[in-house]
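Dear support,

I submitted the protein below through the web form. The confirmation email said the job was done, but the results page showed an empty box. After a refresh the structure appeared. I'm attaching both so you can tell me whether what I see now is the final result or a partial one.
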Amino acid sequence: MDTALQTKEAICNGCISRTCCYHYRVSITGFDLWRIASALDIRPSQFVGFTYAEADAEHAFILDHSGERYELVLAKSTDAQRLGACVFLVRTNTGIHRCGLGDLSPLVCRQYPGYFKDGLMRVINNPNACWRTWSILELDVDLERALEQSAKERLDDYDAILRDWNERVGKSSADSWFSFEQFCTYLENRYVTQFAT
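What the results page shows now:
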């Protein structure tokens, strides 16, 4: 395993509270949904939700002709011990928080705090969401670039699926309404067709 990745993982594992898992709205792709649901053998409704998409959101879906656009997100916990945290955040008996997904975590979580803008790698430093300040020197640029490329490929696939879904909804009768459950089933079926062996 790469030293920079070990450092990144070691730093994150040193965080007791996992503030980022409470702070951020974690937007996921259909691939993330399918991969997690398949691996854990659970229904998407047990771990995802949807929220209104920002006006400039690229990866949005519709459910009717109202013009409202939505974004797929990991659900937040309603458990009193972890209220508002990612539904997969696990709190140990000693009070330490850990991600319950491990290698199944969405790509956006694995990329944090690194991201690329205009071809340059940057880091997110938000004191409300992380207990420390990150340095770009702590990250493996090649690994982060590979994660970014993988994320781009997954988003390209997801965007094509969203275009098909949105077109399907758009062509339906004006009084038609599709449920979020139907959308999730559509995603699962598309990814099963594309990736299942």
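Response: this is the final, complete result; the empty box was a page-load delay. The chain has a mean pLDDT of 90.
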